[in-house]
Structures are given as structure tokens and as C-alpha cells.
Amino acid sequence: MNPIDQRIVSCLVQNARASYAEVGKVVGLSAPAVKRRVDRLLETGVLRGFTAVVDPEALGWGTEAFVEVHCRGNISPSRIRSRLEPLPEVVAAYTVTGAADAIVHLRAGDIHQLETALERLRGLEIIDRTVSTVVLSRLLERPPAP
């Protein structure tokens, strides 16, 4: 990626609905030139797509927690993922360094639903134990800088 591509990505991160002409004005290119670069960024995987950003609280999913997952034995990341995917409250999961095998991000409608989700998570046959941290408030959230 060159500096112009980085500026295009930055514009799209700020407003994915911006037209090629609007982006072109910011980066100093014509709309067709911006389209060609965006197409290339999509083909190379720099851009994976465009999406709407939804406020989870507006959808009734305002309770969230991060859960350290400690598995029984040596479990592959793909096996952890396959067990977590059916749980609707799991919005993200990551393998990590340290004592835990993974960190799981849960969202729920209320503390009762979160407790139920945690019980189902702990009930998975691969899970030995969990350590949960409930989020009280969001201090900072932003997309990664290009």
C-alpha cells in the first residue's frame, strides 16, 4: 500500500458510504481512479468489505463481558472456534498468550442472559474453567488506523 491507498482506506474507515468522487476530492484522484484502487484493495484483501456499524445497546445487547477460557488438554484453535460458534452471545474470540487458551467477548441483553451464556460456555466439554470480567463502561473504541 502506498500513501494514497492509505488515505483512501482512512476515508472509507471514516465513512464507508462516501462516493468515489468524494474520496477522490480528499486524495486528489478522479472517481474512476479511486474505484480502480478500491477494487485492487478488495482483491488483495486489504479491504474485506463494507458494512454498517450497529450500536449493540440499541439492539438490546448492552451487557458485555470478556472471558478467559482455559481448556482441558491441548485443544486446537479450530476446535475451540467450532464449539464457540453456536453460542449466539459470542461476538468475538481470540487465541492469546499467557495462561488462558482464548479470550471470548460475550454480549447479552441483561445480566441474567449473560449468566446463562456463561453457564453454557462453562458447560462445553473442552472447557476446564473460565475467568469472567463484566464491562462497566466503554472508554474508547475505534477502528485500526490504516
TrEMBL record:
SMART domains: HTH_ASNC. One of its GO terms (biological process) is response to amino acid. InterPro entries: AsnC-type_HTH_dom, Dimeric_a/b-barrel, Tscrpt_reg_AsnC-like, Tscrpt_reg_AsnC/Lrp_C, Tscrpt_reg_HTH_AsnC-type_CS, WH-like_DNA-bd_sf, WH_DNA-bd_sf. Keywords: DNA-binding, Transcription, Transcription regulation. It comes from the Bacteria. GO terms for cellular component: cytosol. One of its GO terms (molecular function) is sequence-specific DNA binding. Residues 1-62 form the HTH asnC-type domain. Coiled coil: none annotated. PANTHER family: LEUCINE-RESPONSIVE REGULATORY PROTEIN, TRANSCRIPTIONAL REGULATORY PROTEIN (PROBABLY ASNC-FAMILY)-RELATED. This is Lrp/AsnC family transcriptional regulator. The lineage of its organism: Bacteria, Bacillati, Actinomycetota, Actinomycetes, Pseudonocardiales.
